[in-house]
Amino acid sequence: MDNEGIFDVIVIGTGLTESITAAAFARAGFKVAHLDENVYYGGDEASLSFEEYINWATHAKDSTQFSSISLSSSDALPNSRQYSISLSPSVIPAAGPLISSLVASGVSRYGGFRLVEQVAVYSNHEVKTVPGSKEDIFKDKTISLLDKRRLMRFLVFASGDEDFEARTELEGAKADMPFVEFLKTTFSLDQKMAETIAYALSHCVSPSDKALSALRRLRRYLRSAGRYGHSPFLIGQYGSSGEIAQGFCRTAAVAGCVYILGKEISSITRNRNFDESQSSPTYTLTLSDFPETITCDLIVSSESHFPAGLLGNIGDILRIPPAFPATGEETPSTIARGVCIIDQPLSFVSSQESSSSEEGDGQESRPTLDTGIFVFPPSSLSTGAASSAVTVLVVGEGTMSVPKGKWILYLSTSIDTAVSPEQLLKPYLDMTLSLSATSSSDISIIPLFTSFYLQTTFPSSYTTSSTKSSLTTSSRPDHSFGSSLPTILLSPAPPNSPLPDSGDAAAVNAEAIFWEAVKALKSIKASKKLQKTSEGQVPPTVVREEEEELVEIESFWPPVVNEEDDEE
Fold it and tell me: Where is this region: Disordered (predicted)?
């Protein structure tokens, strides 16, 4: 075989975590191949055109991650190729691990981003927009002066530099107290204000979310406000996470990564000479309808995309534990999701706020919304059955995800029992559609298209019964020479986390995978060179030079080369 098919690392799956990892490998100088059996980038976080989404819904029914998929219609919409429908929609905090990786890697120049315009919460049969700054709080006439003082005292506490664990407000067992109760008892906030902070600012999932973890999330979001504008959140254009994953893939390709899409892995064979001479590549992969085999020393894959039936005793497997705060659950978690396409605008301004802003012209015009987040706290809707918060993400033409005059609504909520996602989310969709910006009547907007499905996340520590007997789970081992070397790294599954956290989780987990891989590759290459040296094939000085070369990888992202300067 020529050198074209020999790689240091093969990455399987083009989800956001794996795409960031592949780009980091390539930028660090490793020879990388990036595979995906799909013909598109993004994996379970992909952004699909309308036809691609219909095709995905048809074929994903046999998936272990997606189930109970329903479509209101499979007929194509006008300008259907202009839609970018996200399978796992998300927003990006303006200060955090993902935005840092986007800037440091140079991927930010490959895409566009837009601020989330508004966040609103449904409470006591009212829609309340969440203040985006201290000035907005002081101008808000619906908040009493006493509540403003209490709210400001809490926000000063939440945005401070001191560790929460050292604060007197969290003494005793208060860190583990439900966040809403903590706000009510410690800062004397009323139920409505406490729910707004918990579900619209801290993006809590359920009433049982603990105070300490909610405060840490809130601090990240508060520190994001003002970096790029009034909103702490950005959304990627052309479909958010899927497009961002493709941007990292582009960076990897520029750095020499080889991409093979739309080909299933037929077999993975461990080299028989690996344990003896360690002079050959560790693995040989055969792809369907692909003429050449490819080889590598290390495989990185999301467990859900590793070929079924091939996770046997073919190497030392290391599951990378999540490095980013998640739910902490060790069992599968499920999200009910909904997608709705409409052709009329919404408004997150309540009728009371709208009427108070009128100038006496007799018209009930309300500002239209292009991008926003609408939150239903648990039990806020009498006709709704969700026990967790329901989040609605609205994206319009400003995100380049829909044609002009169209909007996509993404609904999501965490569930713990088998339910119909359509029956669960339909009441919340109907209430959201009643927020028409063009009519004061009770007639709701009629959707052009709806779809509902369940998405199940399997934590890295969870093993299905079909693979439990053949898999080994390692802790983080010492990768010094002579130790058992992990040659397959399984990346953490995207967590069932609040809307703004999935991208940051992908960036942090990718970096954890990168450093584990660097240690493993260093040991593998040193072992091979040492074997060749003992056989007289390579002088000892070459071994030392290669070890020193790998040690020089000191940062996750090396400095970005300024292409304009190079041209000069």
Answer: 461-487, 526-545
The SS3 call for residue 41 is: coil
CA 282 to centroid of chain Cα atoms: 31
pLDDT higher than threshold 50 for residue 83: yes
**What's the CATH architecture for 134-224?**
Orthogonal Bundle (1.10)
Of 15-24, 470-479, 482-491, minimum mean pLDDT range: 470-479
The answer to whether 141 and 172 have CB atoms below 8 angstroms apart is: no
What per-residue confidence (pLDDT) applies to 437? 73
**Scanning the structure block, which residue is given the tokens 């806020």?**
380
Phi-psi region of 461 (alpha: psi -120 to 50; beta: other; left: phi over 0): alpha
Q: Which fold is adopted by the domain 59-83+112-132+230-236+333-457? A: Guanine Nucleotide Dissociation Inhibitor; domain 2 (3.30.519)
Rounded to the nearest angstrom, the gap between the alpha carbon of residue 72 and the centroid of all alpha carbons in its chain is 27
Contact 344, 370 (CB under 8 A): no
Q: How many CB atoms lie within 10 A of CB 1?
A: 11
Which among 214, 212, 220 is positioned nearest to 171, based on CA atoms? 212
Torsion of CA 221, 335, 16, 398, to 10 degrees: -60
CA–CA dist 98, 501 (Å, integer): 9
* Contact between 225 and 133 (Cβ < 8 Å): yes
